[in-house]
């Protein structure tokens, strides 16, 4: 069930004073106060529905997965304006990722939570995890930033600009932005092996390669469940990832840091994660980096559950 709290006074990074910001969230597993709390941050097109039949990370967060749902309280906020929180943003650039992290921290305080066991998220949700821990260095015992970066790389800014151009100029902006995004979420190898140049005959329909039909399917599917205004909000948030300028500035985080990277990720590339880890682990003891080996690229955080669960599980013991 989606619940709502109101954040009373908030000054955004842009310097705008805002009052009464609705922040919606879901809780799964044991009620708040009865088990260690895990805050889960969603990515670009995600939402607060993490677990259960429709939950987007239900293969990670379940008694069979890496985070046993019977033993950990899962708290997940909707990013304001993501289209699942009942609001529609008039200005997609009103919040930065740092603003969202501040709002989530205020939300946690509002719910009376003083200790968080873990903050976890992947992709933009992973960057949000870095940002929350950087803003509130003692908030969580451990953090899991997965397939993400603490600062938008020039490569990510390149892809974001393409996304913005498509959103501004296409006659079917959400579909076309999704198609381009899917090409960043997979690898050439993943698509080449899967589709192998095939072209299924479709009676009475335009003849397309299977990969083209798959891309169009994803474009059309997103249009059915996502608002254009929300996609613009989320695209701006991706653009605004700027926790700090150098990895050494992340040392102020007091939580144990468990980074996870995907060796074939074309969006948040593995070499950047290794650089961050090398710099951080030189200065700080409690940092680890695990690598998911996959041909699929960025999407592997939603596909390679055998590996992801194996990495995460030892950090979520059953008490
Ligand atoms: C900055 C950030 O935060 S980025 C992070 C954002 N990440 C995302 O949004 C994730 C995007 N990726 C997806 O959504 C992926 O589909 C995943 C990772 C969830 C699942 O990947 P896969 O298991 O390979 O599934 P796949 O992509 O093939 O999707 C399956 C669907 O495609 C359909 N499909 C498969 N092949 C074709 C084809 N040739 N033509 C048309 N449809 C097809 C299937 O019928 C199925 O439909 P259904 O979901 O309605 O049942």
Automatic annotation (TrEMBL):
InterPro entries: AB_hydrolase_1, AB_hydrolase_fold, HAT_MetX-like
Domain AB hydrolase-1: 36-143
GO MF terms, alphabetically ordered: homoserine O-acetyltransferase activity
Keyword Transferase attributed: yes
Keyword annotations of the record: Transferase
GO BP: homoserine metabolic process; methionine biosynthetic process
PANTHER family documented for this protein: HOMOSERINE O-ACETYLTRANSFERASE
Protein name from the UniProt record: Homoserine acetyltransferase
Species of origin: Porphyromonas cangingivalis
């Amino acid at each position: 069930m989606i619940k709502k709290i109101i954040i009373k006074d908030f000054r955004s990074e842009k310097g705008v004073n805002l009052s009464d910001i609705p922040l919606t969230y879901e809780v799964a597993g044991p009620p708040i106060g009865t088990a260690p709390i895990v805050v889960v941050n969603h990515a670009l097109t995600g939402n607060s529905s993490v677990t259960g039949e429709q939950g987007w990370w239900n293969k990670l967060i379940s008694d069979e997965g890496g985070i046993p749902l019977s033993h950990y309280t899962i708290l997940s906020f909707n990013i304001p304006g993501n289209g699942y929180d009942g609001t529609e943003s008039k200005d997609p650039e009103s919040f930065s990722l740092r603003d969202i992290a501040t709002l989530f921290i205020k939300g946690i305080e509002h719910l009376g939570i003083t200790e968080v066991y873990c903050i976890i998220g992947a992709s933009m949700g992973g960057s949000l995890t870095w940002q929350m821990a950087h803003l509130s260095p003692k908030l969580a015992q451990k953090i899991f930033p997965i397939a993400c970066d603490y600062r938008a790389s020039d490569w990510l800014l390149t892809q974001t600009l393409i996304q913005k151009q498509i959103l501004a100029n296409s006659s079917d902006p959400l579909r076309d932005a999704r198609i381009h995004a899917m090409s960043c979420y997979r690898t050439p190898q993943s698509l080449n092996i899967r589709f192998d140049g095939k072209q299924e005959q479709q009676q009475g329909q335009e003849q397309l390669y299977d990969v083209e039909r798959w891309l169009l399917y994803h474009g059309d599917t997103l249009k059915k469940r996502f608002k254009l205004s929300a996609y613009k909000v989320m695209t701006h948030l991706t653009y605004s990832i700027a926790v700090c300028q150098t990895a050494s500035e992340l040392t102020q985080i007091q939580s144990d840091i468990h980074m996870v990277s995907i060796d074939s990720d074309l969006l948040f590339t593995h070499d950047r994660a290794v650089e961050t880890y090398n710099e951080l682990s030189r200065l700080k003891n409690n940092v680890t980096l695990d690598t998911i080996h996959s041909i699929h690229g960025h999407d592997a955080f939603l596909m390679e559950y055998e590996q992801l669960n194996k990495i995460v599980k030892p950090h979520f013991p059953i008490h």
